[in-house]
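Quiz preparation item.
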């Protein structure tokens, strides 16, 4: 079958050189003739994207032989497996890759012909006259093995997927239905052609349709945009990560100004492609001005990106498939885009959703099998010819929706199945601070592993990204999620997740990543200057872990809000540096040290002294009265006596005259009211609570706080000032009531105590009055709108004298006595 013919036009561009179709066919014939490719042999192509890759590829096909396309970034060791397994007769490679080929052959002790395409002088090869007159490239026969491509599995050795020419031709015909390719098209070959998607989509099919291909020798974003403009590119195939990066840059620009933000919202409401193309003409021109549509494949694309690009006047057509299906199973018609779907099933292909929701496929596109591996073939293709994709999905209104990966489903000990992608999508939609998220079972706990968008963190001046994501995002998700889908731990990491070459996250490697088992790139030499060394020593001393020049001060070192306060004071005492949001602006050790070096004032010699900090005067406004708290005490007494049947124990241990710090476990929204109910009126009137300003934004709520001894603070802005306010109250013979966990328990168990209460108690020598709340979590847990009736116990325990204790001893003792008492209540 004739598949490439001379159309008297440009076939491809590379490094500013144009290759016509006549030249392309002649060069292919010259490589075929000079290398003497034999029919029905396997021939490896191992090189970067370049014209010679396609010359070699079509020379192999024209010889009715099989192409074995291998990732050019494979190591020599990896290459040994591919060479040995595929039984290749020849290896086509480039000067850039040939040393790895030689090394692999030495390891194997094999003699295989190596053809270095750079060394073939095409101008000095004469071909037969009859070939020059008949300028066509022929295909293999339909049942011939045209391609062997290796899939990278999570376990075991890669498997060689055997694709017949008819498998590939089935995909060609299916896309012809959608008129995806036209002779006038110009395609940008961006992805490496050892993958079936770019090989077919930007290598084979453009030449079958006599279109034009543009190869990039520089794949930077600048080179990409320049090429799109210079060559008037009409279509590009990319993986989701590419569209995510482009989307972020465009949306950041739009959201930076109120007028563009308004126009975008208006265009979204109008939902007219022609209107959007006029309004956002500059966006289209930024991509060269000739793009008909983009194509996304390799993994699922965030539907919001599809929607936003459409609002900008640009279509993204998403497809779904796998190497074993040549690769397309479904594709989105360019005039009927449905975000979140993987398109319509292509012709000559049948798709069913199995009982366990797995997508299974039968049709002309399904591979012949795995090379020399009938056992693996039988595992994926059943006796009735159905290929089991391993993906989960559903069919609705003729469109296929991919909902997850079967092997990535998390099966809990109680038998419940969790689709992590579903949870990841929900959490990601709640914030713009997440770059990537993986939900996995780690140490038998459902865990969200998050790589933050550090640029957004910096823009929004978030100094404690862990607490922000844990409590403002994940915790809010948990409040609406079923118990078995709740995220019980959050890990924040300062690096990209391990991925395949086309951008799929290697989920099976996440645990190794968290445990530091993945080998990192060799670090550059450590800087050596005074500010860097001094700051590094401080961080090593307080965190007890390795610190590097590129360590993210919060994420990598696990700095909590109080650590940050201490660190800020260290910088102030030693370098005269005092600035808000310093860590969000200069998040790594080296960036911060360079800033300190350039901006330090006259050096101050000193050490962090919490006594000095706490005893500084503050002009913070305190609540004016407690009359609302008193009213609530009497109003809630009816509820607590009947509905909740509250029992108060140990109230005789309460100190009525000396200033005291009350600490308790934090079980529910009721806890503050329970305290008011449980203590004598005289104690209530002189006891103050802390609350975050975010919960008291309205004028009415601020009035309630001011009349109920509630001190409003911003815990993330300046904890030192918060502690000065608490100290001021204690020095005025007032009491303070604190829940050292920070937030209410989400599982009934006590969380780690923060140490601020211990610092104040120690430095002012104020006793701790621990008390335990039992039963409130079971009756009114976080996330529930209404409580249920039952029993609650509030028990005051023996006071803790702090005079001879350290901060850590105060924390440990307070936590232990409350936790042990709570356990006793649960056991009884």
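Solution:
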């Amino acid at each position: 079958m004739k598949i490439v013919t001379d159309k008297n036009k440009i076939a491809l561009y590379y490094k500013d050189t144009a290759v016509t179709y006549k030249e392309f066919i002649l060069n292919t014939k010259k490589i075929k003739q000079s290398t003497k490719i034999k029919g029905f042999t396997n021939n490896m192509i191992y090189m970067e994207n370049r014209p010679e890759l396609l010359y070699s590829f079509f020379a192999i096909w024209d010889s009715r032989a099989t192409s074995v396309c291998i990732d050019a970034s494979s190591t020599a060791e990896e290459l040994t497996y591919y060479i040995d397994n595929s039984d290749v007769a020849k290896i086509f490679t480039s000067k850039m890759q040939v040393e790895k080929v030689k090394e692999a052959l030495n390891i194997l002790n094999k003699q295989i012909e190596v053809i270095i395409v750079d060394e073939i002088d095409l101008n000095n090869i004469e071909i037969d006259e009859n070939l020059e007159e008949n300028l066509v490239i022929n295909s293999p026969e339909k049942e011939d093995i045209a391609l062997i491509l290796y899939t990278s599995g999570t376990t075991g050795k890669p498997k060689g997927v055997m694709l017949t020419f008819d498998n590939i031709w089935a995909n060609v015909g299916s896309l012809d239905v959608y008129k995806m390719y036209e002779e006038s098209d110009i395609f940008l070959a961006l992805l490496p052609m050892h993958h079936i998607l770019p090989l077919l989509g930007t290598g084979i099919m453009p030449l079958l349709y006599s279109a034009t291909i543009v190869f990039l020798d520089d794949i930077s974003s600048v080179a990409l945009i320049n090429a799109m403009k210079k060559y008037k590119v009409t279509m590009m195939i990319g993986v989701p990560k590419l569209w995510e990066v482009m989307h972020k840059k465009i949306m950041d620009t739009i959201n930076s100004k109120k007028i563009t933000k308004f126009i975008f919202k208006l265009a979204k409401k109008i939902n007219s492609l022609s209107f959007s193309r006029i309004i956002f003409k500059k966006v289209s021109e930024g991509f060269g001005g000739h793009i008909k549509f983009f194509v996304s494949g390799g993994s699922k694309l965030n539907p919001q990106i599809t929607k936003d690009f459409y609002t900008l006047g640009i279509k993204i057509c998403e497809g779904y498939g796998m190497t074993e299906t040549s690769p397309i199973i479904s594709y989105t018609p360019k005039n009927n885009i449905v975000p979140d779907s993987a398109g319509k099933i292509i012709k000559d292909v049948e798709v069913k959703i199995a009982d366990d929701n797995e997508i299974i496929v039968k049709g002309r596109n399904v591979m012949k099998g795995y090379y020399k591996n009938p056992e693996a073939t039988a595992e994926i293709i059943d006796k009735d010819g159905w290929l089991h994709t391993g993906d989960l999905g559903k069919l609705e209104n003729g469109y296929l929706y991919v909902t997850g990966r079967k092997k990535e489903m998390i099966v809990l000990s109680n038998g419940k199945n969790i689709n992590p992608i579903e949870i990841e999508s929900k959490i990601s939609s709640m914030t713009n601070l997440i770059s990537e998220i993986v939900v996995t079972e780690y140490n038998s706990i459902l865990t969200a592993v998050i790589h933050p968008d550090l640029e957004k963190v910096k823009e929004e001046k978030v100094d404690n990204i862990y607490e922000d994501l844990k409590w403002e995002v994940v915790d809010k998700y948990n409040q609406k999620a079923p118990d078995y889908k709740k995220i019980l731990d959050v890990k924040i990491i300062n690096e990209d997740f391990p991925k395949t070459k086309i951008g799929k996250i290697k989920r099976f490697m996440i645990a190794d990543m968290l445990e530091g088992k993945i080998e990192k790139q060799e670090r550059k030499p450590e800087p050596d200057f005074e500010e860097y060394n001094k700051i590094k020593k401080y961080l090593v001393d307080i965190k007890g872990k390795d610190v590097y020049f590129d360590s993210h001060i919060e994420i990598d070192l696990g700095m909590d809000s109080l650590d940050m306060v201490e660190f800020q004071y260290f910088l102030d005492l030693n370098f005269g540096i005092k600035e808000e949001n310093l860590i969000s602006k200069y998040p790594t050790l080296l960036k911060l040290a360079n800033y300190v070096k350039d901006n330090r004032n006259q050096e101050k010699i000193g050490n962090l002294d919490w006594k000095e900090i706490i005893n500084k005067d503050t002009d913070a406004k305190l609540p004016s009265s407690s009359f609302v708290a008193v009213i609530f005490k009497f109003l809630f007494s009816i509820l607590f006596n009947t509905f909740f049947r509250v029992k108060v124990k140990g109230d005789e241990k309460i100190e009525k005259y000396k200033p005291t710090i009350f600490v308790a476990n934090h079980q529910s929204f009721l806890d503050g009211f329970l305290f008011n109910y449980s203590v004598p009126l005289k104690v209530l009137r002189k006891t103050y609570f802390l609350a975050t300003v975010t919960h008291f934004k309205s004028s009415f709520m601020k009035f309630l706080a001011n009349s109920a001894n509630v001190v409003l603070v911003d815990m993330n802005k300046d904890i030192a000032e918060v502690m000065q306010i608490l100290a001021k109250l204690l020095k005025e013979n007032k009491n303070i009531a604190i829940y050292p966990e920070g937030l209410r328990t989400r599982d009934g168990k006590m969380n780690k105590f923060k140490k601020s209460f211990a610092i104040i108690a120690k430095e002012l020598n104020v006793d701790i009055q621990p008390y335990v709340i039992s039963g409130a979590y079971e009756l009114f847990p976080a996330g529930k709108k209404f409580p249920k009736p039952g029993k609650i116990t509030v028990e005051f325990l023996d006071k803790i004298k702090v005079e001879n204790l350290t901060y850590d001893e105060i924390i440990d003792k307070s936590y232990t006595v409350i936790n042990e008492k709570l356990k006793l209540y649960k056991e009884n």
